[in-house]
Amino acid sequence: MAFPPKSKSTMENIRVTLMEAIARQRIVQVRYNGERIRLAPHFLFERHGDLFIGALNLGKNWRADDEPRLGQFKLAGLDGAELLDETFDALPSYKATMPRAEDTLVLAI
């Protein structure tokens, strides 16, 4: 999926905000696909030169028998990252393992 190009400073601001959120286990609010969502980012990783976060989408409705799990969000697809005063706990099943063998971990809780 192609995303409209963002300025280097906009991408840097998003990256720094998400890194702080991971380091301090704080919730972030972002715009994704035109909607505002709240994420609990657990790790930042690189894939083929692009940055992604593994984060729990706090607004997602899970079926009763599904355990919440982390989604992958490409930073180029996020906009307006805002660090909130709310903290989060890591998912009980969380392990800082990458989704694909070729992914490179940048930062994790």
Give an overview in words.
With 109 residues, the protein is an alpha+beta fold. It has a single domain, classed as SH3 type barrels, CATH 2.30.30. The protein contains one helix and six strands; from the N terminus they run αββββββ. Strands 1, 2, 3, 4, 5 and 6 form a six-stranded antiparallel β-sheet that branches. A hairpin with a 2-residue loop joins strand 2 and strand 3. The radius of gyration is 13 Å and the shape is globular. It starts with 7 loop residues before the first helix and ends with a strand.
Helix content: 10-25%
Mean pLDDT: 92
DSSP helical segment count: 1
**Anisotropy-based shape:** globular
Could you say how many structural domains there are in total?
1
CATH architecture call: Roll
Question: What structural class do you assign from the helix and strand content?
Answer: alpha+beta
Sequence of secondary-structure elements: HEEEEEE
Looking at how many chains there are and whether they match, the oligomeric state comes to single chain
- Fraction in beta strands: 35-45%
Q: What integer value in Å does the Rg equal? A: 13 Å
Low-confidence stretches: none
Number of strands: 6
Largest sheet: 6 strands, antiparallel
CATH class: Mainly Beta
CA-CA gap between termini: 28 Å
What would the CATH topology be? SH3 type barrels
